[in-house]
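TA notes, week 10

Several of you asked for a full example with nothing omitted. So below is the full record: structure tokens for the whole chain, then the designed sequence directly under it. When grading your own attempts, check the secondary structure regions first.
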């Protein structure tokens, strides 16, 4: 195997030398055909231009002149007579005045009496009282607690 390497190197050097010599000796091929002749246009000339005048414009008739006519007057109509207000007559028996309820301190006393826990106040048992009828139960109010 040791004898193979020097022979392989000599063979490779010989191939490279032969390729280099052959490449220098051979010249490349150059295409040397003659150029084509120039193109010459030989079509016939166009026919001469003949001018044709345009047709005349159509005959335009002007409209008749405008005459102003005023509109007819509006139709005459009568306006209704003016409105006169007539107040209604007063009622024959005049109605009673409205009844106005004003808040009274009695309401506060009633509330205090209704919310007390004792059935009888210790100091009011000897005073005269006013008896009021409420739809659910009767309530007795001493006259000393009323402020009139």
């Amino acid at each position: 195997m040791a004898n193979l390497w020097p022979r392989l190197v000599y063979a490779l050097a010989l191939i490279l030398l032969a390729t280099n010599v052959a490449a220098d000796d051979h010249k490349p091929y150059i295409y040397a055909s003659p150029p084509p002749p120039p193109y010459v246009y030989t079509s016939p000339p166009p026919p001469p231009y003949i001018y044709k005048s345009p047709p005349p414009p159509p005959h335009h008739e002007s409209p008749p002149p405008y005459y102003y006519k005023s509109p007819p007057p509006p139709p005459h109509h009568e306006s209704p007579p003016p409105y006169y207000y007539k107040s209604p007559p007063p009622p024959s028996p005049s109605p009673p005045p409205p009844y106005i309820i004003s808040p009274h301190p009695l309401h506060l006393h009633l509330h205090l009496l209704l919310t007390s826990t004792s059935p009888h106040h210790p100091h009011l048992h000897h005073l005269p009282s006013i008896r009021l009828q409420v739809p659910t139960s009767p309530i007795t109010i001493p006259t000393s607690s009323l402020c009139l």
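Residues 72 and 87 are 44 Å apart (CA to CA). Use that as a sanity check on your answer.
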